[in-house]
Amino acid sequence: MKNLSSWLIAIFAFMFWGFRVITTVLYSLGTEFVAVPIDLTMEIVLLFITFICICLITKRKLLPTIIYLIAHGMYYGYYLYQNIVGIMSGAGTLESYMSLLIAFVGIIIPIAAVFDVLLDKNRKAHPVDKKTDWFYKNKQFDRKMDDRADKNQYRTL
Is the distance from CB of 33 to CB of 27 less than 8 angstroms? Predict the structure, then answer.
């Protein structure tokens, strides 16, 4: 993660995850809060999946990013659609507008994470191979050649 955009996406994802943790805890304690989880059980499962995926997204892995997008798309996508239909029919309250904003953010962050990982040039241009990088990326093992040495190339890359 060398780009500022990658760091910002990870920070926003962790902040949104923390917000959803606080929302879930306050809802389970019976305290009034701005946002309410759709389904408490699914919210808790989504929180665990999200935490694992965000930790692996910072490692620039593609599969957890796609899992993160699918999980949030399934959970917040229906919520987003439900709130848009409710607002369009004229039953828009402050709670529905806040839920719409939260669902929108819940969809945008995974989409941005997927595009960030897919468009990362360092992930594809410089893959890490721990079996050979210790030799090929270490100048200590380069042979010192003088004019008497043969000109063979000892490295394979």
Answer: yes
151 part of a folded domain: no
pTM given for the model: 0.74
Per 3-state DSSP, what percentage of the chain is helix, strand, and coil (rounded to 5)? 70, 0, 30
DSSP code of residue 126: S
Instruction: Give the total number of structural domains in the chain.
Output: 1
Q: How far apart are CA 48 and CA 55, in angstroms?
A: 11
Mind listing the pLDDT tens digit for each residue in 100-111?
Answer: 899 999 999 999
For residue range 58-85, what is the model confidence (pLDDT) as tens digits?
A: 888 889 999 999 999 999 998 889 889 9
> Would you say residue 131 lies in a domain?
no
- The answer as to whether 41 is a domain residue is yes
140 assigned to some structural domain: no
